[in-house]
Design a protein that fits this description.
The complex is a heterodimer of chains A (219) and B (608). In chain A, helix 3 packs antiparallel against helix 4. Chain A has 219 residues and is of the alpha+beta class. Among the domains of chain A are: 54 residues, Alpha Horseshoe (Serine Threonine Protein Phosphatase 5, Tetratricopeptide repeat); 59 residues, SH3 Domains (SH3 type barrels). Chain A contains 7 helices and 7 strands; from the N terminus they run H-H-H-H-H-H-H-E-E-E-E-E-E-E. In chain A, strand 5 and strand 6 form a beta hairpin. With 608 residues, chain B is an alpha+beta fold. Chain B folds into 4 domains: 142 residues, no CATH class; 157 residues; 121 residues, Immunoglobulin-like (Sandwich), CATH 2.60.40; 103 residues, no CATH class. In chain B, a hairpin with a 2-residue loop joins strand 14 and strand 15. The relative contact order of chain B is 0.06. The chains are: A alpha+beta (219), B alpha+beta (608).
């Protein structure tokens, strides 16, 4: 039994090292993205500024500076300002990286509690407490996923007066235009175009050159 | 109604005659000029006539000088005219007026009292005519009064109409579009109506793009005035061979009801008024046909045919460009290919654009600007949106287009040069701060209320996707789940074992079940030897364990010695020997009895 637990911990350690090894100097950090957004804002590019504030907020959801500057740029660009709900605040209480490990640990605690219950009927209160703790940690991670899932499928308009077309071709007839900095939901993609849905429920195709997803596409 | 018209025309003739008589009685001769027709196309000529009515002497004139017009004296005439019963001598000077350029020309008046004349020269007909003439070839001779009948014009028997078909004097090829002109000439006053469009008499050819509105002109042919309609079209050639090609047009002409010699005045004036005045005519529908012309149609040669040839026949050149010359990754560019020349443009397609690899492409759209009414010459433009997927200096390869040149009689391939485009990385994918960031950047409404930058403290991550959604991280919870499943199964097994029979009995129990199964199978087949041998084999180890002897020492005699001859165990051993060596048979009742006894014996032996 001791050998099994040791093997489990070893595998967890190897996985953690592997995940952490992908971090590098060319990656994303909340501070870098925040500073990049500030640079774009100073240049008068609200679309790129909002895009990078949103990206920074993915990594550091409760940074007051990011929140303040994002709200300021949106207001200056005459765009609607989002208000975060209590669920969003709780679900994004920590960074997704930390919550990933919390969730994995919680899953392990739940599993260990269930196995222990099979092996011995003793320490029922302790096992119950551990099970509750594990489920809470796992639930927090799931809530974080639910809160972030819509953001992972959103994009920001990065050019002024972006035409939204009826079909995914450059010569498609424009339906309406979107202001720079508008956040839209990306419903589908076709070649160089994305099918977007605005907050008002209007849909159409926007060229990738006019729109940047908050989570960058894989290259 | 017809009587009223007749009376009106008669009165008009009387009034005109009165004016002429007044002129004849005047002391000064009447000198006037006419030009026929007043509107011509570039390449044609008009007849300019100066008439001296009254003294019969040739007027002393100097040639008019008009920039862009060429005047040539081609004849002088003298004749007597009877006007209102008075015979007056007249003399005329006939000049040919040939325009050098298109436009509206004013010819000065020949006398101070006369009015200047206006000649309108259009470029359309002349341009088409020039386009159909080989470079450097002389212009066709103008049709003038007194000249011979132009080549290709065959008047009908009564001289009222003709149809002329103009086709190239060379061999043509299947699939080629051949420009043709169909000219229908109708003598003024002799043809009532044109009853339909002209057509070809040979079904092996088809006329494409035949214009519904023909060009109209007035010409003098053999001294008579004709109204000439010219249709321009493209001849579609679909079949090889040698054909006699002609065109026909349905007309309604006026047939005289009097002998021709009595109708000289009608012919002279050529006007329905005089025809009605001096004799009756009746209408008749006829088909006027042009003289047949030989046309040889050849198959396209297979030798040297390029793989990308798609049926274009003619003379073409291509050019391409792309705009804008600089773009970001993902921005659409427009690649334009222009094909200029003459030929069957309907076979000029965009397949050459299929070879633009490494670019995202969209279906091209095409437009055709023709320089003639039938679409034989012009420029076809293809516009294809392309999107670069990689940054850097990207090259759009040169395009090629293959066609068959009917004049050179060989396949040609036109090529355009390759194009270079500078593609910048997409702004959204760049993590580098913009060039004008920081203090150097211009202040704007967004900069004033921003909170300051942050110092770099956290370790960068390679992806913005939460780790719990990344495949490499999902291996960890997956491993936990698998470990949990294995641990759960192990715990369940351990718990089950703890409440089950002792381990030492389980193999015997399984052996007893196996023996009973064998005995049941033997009972079904009636095999007594196997039936009792199986039972004895199962009992031997149990008895050997109880008696502390080897299993092979548990024989019938040993059993009799230990438990007695009446015991079921001894009887079973005895029956086993008997059935094995003597072949004793058992009935169904015996098998059922021993199937009940043997499990009891086995159970007793295990418990003891």
């Amino acid at each position: 039994m001791t050998a099994r637990v040791a093997s489990l911990l070893l595998c967890l350690l190897i996985g953690a090292v592997q995940v952490h090894a992908d971090s590098g100097p060319s990656g994303y950090s909340a501070a870098d993205l925040y500073n990049l957004a500030n640079s774009y804002a100073r240049m008068g590019k609200p679309g790129m500024a909002i895009l990078n504030y949103e990206r920074a907020r993915l990594l550091s959801a409760n940074d007051p500076d990011i929140e303040a500057n994002l709200r300021y740029v949106r207001t200056s660009a005459h765009l609607p300002v989002e208000t975060r709900g209590s669920f969003d605040r709780v679900a994004r209480i920590a960074s997704p990286l930390l919550l990933s490990w919390i969730g994995a640990f919680g899953l392990g605690v739940v599993a260990a509690s269930m196995i222990a219950a099979q092996l011995s009927p003793r320490h029922r209160l302790l096992r119950g407490g551990a099970m509750l703790l594990g489920l809470s940690m796992l639930g927090l991670t799931i809530c974080n996923g639910l809160a972030l899932w819509p953001i992972l499928h959103e994009g920001v308009v990065i050019t002024a007066a972006t035409p939204v077309r009826v079909s995914p071709v450059p010569m498609g007839d424009p339906l309406f235009t979107l202001p720079e900095g508008e956040t839209v939901k990306i419903a589908a993609e076709h070649e160089s175009f994305a099918l977007i849905e605005t907050r008002a429920g209007r849909t159409g195709w926007v060229a990738h050159s006019n729109l940047a997803p908050i989570v960058p596409r894989k290259k | 109604m017809s009587g009223y018209i007749f009376l009106l025309r008669l009165m008009t003739a009387v009034v005109l005659g009165s004016f002429a008589a007044v002129a004849a009685l005047a002391d000064d001769p009447l000198v006037y000029a006419t030009i026929q027709p007043a509107q011509i196309a570039l390449g044609e000529s008009a007849q300019f006539t100066i008439t001296n009515l009254g003294d019969g002497t040739n007027p002393i004139i100097t040639l008019p000088v008009v920039s862009g017009l060429k005047f040539e004296i081609i004849g002088r005439t003298r004749e007597m005219q009877i006007i209102n019963g008075t015979m007056l001598p007249s003399s005329s000077i006939v000049m040919r007026v040939t325009p050098q350029i298109a436009g509206i020309f004013t010819i000065p008046a020949v006398t101070p009292k006369a009015q200047p004349l206006v000649l309108q020269v259009t470029a359309a007909s002349g341009g088409t005519s020039l386009a159909h003439t080989a470079p450097g070839a002389p212009l066709p001779p103008p049709i003038l009064s007194g000249g011979s009948i132009p080549k290709g014009v065959h008047l009908t028997d009564d001289g009222s109409a003709y149809v002329r078909l103009s086709i190239p004097k060379r061999e043509v090829y299947v699939g080629e579009s051949v420009p043709v002109d169909i000219e229908v000439g109708m003598r003024s006053g002799f043809v009532s109506s044109l009853n339909g469009l002209p057509k070809l008499t040979d079904d092996n050819f088809a006329l494409n793009n035949l214009s519904h509105q023909p060009e109209r002109a007035e010409k003098l042919i053999n001294g008579e005035q004709f109204v000439v309609f010219t249709w321009r079209s493209l001849l579609a050639v679909v079949k090889p061979g040698t054909f006699a090609l002609s065109a026909e047009a349905p007309l309604t002409v006026k047939i005289r009801t009097r002998p021709r010699r009595e109708s000289a005045l009608d012919d002279r004036f050529g006007d329905p008024f005089w025809q009605n005045l001096f004799g009756a005519t009746v209408p008749k529908d006829i088909d006027v046909t042009s003289p047949p012309q030989q046309l040889k149609v050849l198959e396209l040669p297979t030798e040297g045919r390029p793989a990308d040839f798609h049926g274009a026949i003619g003379t073409f050149s291509i050019a391409s460009d792309v705009s804008p010359g600089k773009a970001d990754v993902g921005d659409p560019l427009t690649l334009r290919m222009r094909i200029t020349g003459s030929g069957n443009f309907d076979r000029v397609d965009s397949t050459m654009l299929d070879h633009v690899d490494q670019w995202k492409t969209y279906p091209p759209k095409s437009s055709f600007n023709t320089s003639d009414p039938v679409g034989f010459s012009g420029m076809k433009t293809f516009e294809q949106p392309v999107i670069a997927s990689k940054p850097g200096t990207q090259e759009l390869p040169g395009l090629s287009f293959s066609y068959f040149d009917p004049n050179a009689r060989r396949y040609e391939t036109a090529r355009s040069a390759s194009l270079s485009v500078s593609i910048s990385p997409a702004l959204a994918d760049s993590l580098t701060p913009p060039q004008s960031a920081g203090s150097a950047g211009p202040e704007n409404k967004y900069a004033a209320g921003l909170r300051p930058d942050h110092a770099e403290t956290a370790t960068p991550t390679s992806s913005l996707i939460p780790p719990y959604l990344q495949p490499r991280f999902l291996g960890i919870p997956s491993f936990i789940v698998l470990a949990f499943a294995a641990g759960w199964a192990g715990a369940r097994r351990r718990r089950t074992l703890s409440v089950s029979e002792p381990a030492s009995d389980r193999p015997s129990s399984r052996a007893a079940k196996r023996v009973l199964a064998q005995m049941q199978a033997a009972a079904r087949t009636g095999n007594a030897a196997v039936f009792f041998d199986s039972a004895r084999t199962a009992l031997q180890p149990l008895l050997a364990t109880r008696w502390q002897i080897e299993p092979e020492d548990v024989t019938t005699a040993e059993v009799e010695a230990r438990v007695g001859a009446q015991d079921d165990i001894h009887q079973l051993f005895a029956l086993a020997d008997e059935s094995k060596y003597s072949g004793r048979e058992l009935n169904t009742t015996d098998f059922a009895r021993w199937l009940r006894i043997v499990p009891l014996l086995l159970t007793n032996e295990r418990s003891s």
